[in-house]
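Protein modeling request. Please complete all fields; requests missing the sequence field cannot be processed.
Requester role: graduate student
Desired output: 3D structure, token encoding
Chains: 1
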Amino acid sequence: MTDRVKKPDWLKVSLLSTGNFSEVKKIVQQHHLHTICTSGKCPNICDCWARGTATFMILGEICTRSCKFCNTLTGQPLPVDPQEPANVAESIRLMQLKHAVVTSVDRDDLPDLGAAHWAETIRSIKSVNPGITVETLIPDFQGRDALIDIVIEAQPEIISHNIETVRRLTPFVRSAAKYDVSLHVLAHIAQRGIVAKSGLMVGLGETEEEVLETMDDLLKAGCSILTIGQYLQPSRKNIPVAEYVDPEQFARYKALGLKRGFRQVESAPLVRSSYHAENHLQ
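Delivered output (282 residues):
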């Protein structure tokens, strides 16, 4: 059995619920919604919910894929809820959000992989919340441009798709997604004139050289915003942490990313793809 790496003292998360935390939790529960905040055991849930922000997860809570880093349920998904787009839009109105972030499970069981439901959700959010900006964190849609275009045509301001890890580790970490398919998705988004964003986990056994190679690949694809955060093992069924990357290295990654050409880089141990996403349109 591999020895587990001890979590450093500086990697601590406040679990204190303050501000709007209770109100956000109430709205999410009343509208029978799912969030990646809870299903992904995000370490920032108290911070984000206290500020009145949440990342909504559509198309149910059961994913057709089983990536080794992810805590989301996997199996046979339930039928798509036709009321979900309206419920998400109304919840955002009640939260008085100016910037909404939406993600989803993978739905490889659906003929369109969930693309039409994605578009309907974006349109509902914008209809109920005039002036809002929307960021979507989409799956790879198996690299099918026509399905990605369905989301693009709903006109979200940012479309994010996470590369997740470096090329060498992708087959081990991701169950079905492929490194080059993810790059193709991001390139297609950028070519259509939408802001393309991606996220990368570190601490899985990658080298600095591999991280920098991934940055270069993302830039070539047209990605302009990058988030880098520490992988944290959400449960014992997930792959263990190989290394806790220190804050100084995260700061170095940010500096190198900006120098290489990214418009924005968020890089710190607890950074996640949607953390403080409202700042990424500035």
